[in-house]
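Protocol step 4 of 6.
Sequence for Membrane spanning 4-domains A5 (Nomascus leucogenys) entered exactly as in the expression construct, tag removed. Do not edit the line below.
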Amino acid sequence: RIAIQIMTGILLHCLGLLWIYLLFTQTIAFEAIYIPLALLTAYPFWSSLLFIFSGAFTVFLEKRRSPFLVSYTLGANIISACISVIGLLLLSTEFIIYSKSSKNSLWPHVMVNSFQNICSY
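Step 5 output, C-alpha cells:
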C-alpha cells in the first residue's frame, strides 16, 4: 500500500514526459498540433510530487508513530485522493472535448489504429 502511492507518482511523471515527447514530435509526424488538457495544467508533474510526498509521509509514519505524523499523513492522503479525482475529471473532460472536436487524425487515433493493426496479425 505504501509503495503504490510512490509508484503512482513515478508512473504519472513518466506519463507526463511521454505526453511532452508526443507534443514535440506530433508536429513533424502529423503536421497538426494537439495539446492535451492534462499537459496544459501540468497535472502529471505537480500531482506526481504530491503522490510521492503522500507515500513518503506514510513510510515515515510506519517507522515512527507520532500524533504529528499521523495528522500530516492523513492530510496528505486526503489531498492525494482529491488530486486523483481532479485527474479523472481532467482526463474525462479531455476525452469528451477531443471526441466532439476531432476532425483530423492525430496521435490518439493513430495509436489506436496501429494497435488494432498489430492485434490483427
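Step 6, annotate. The radius of gyration is 18 Å.
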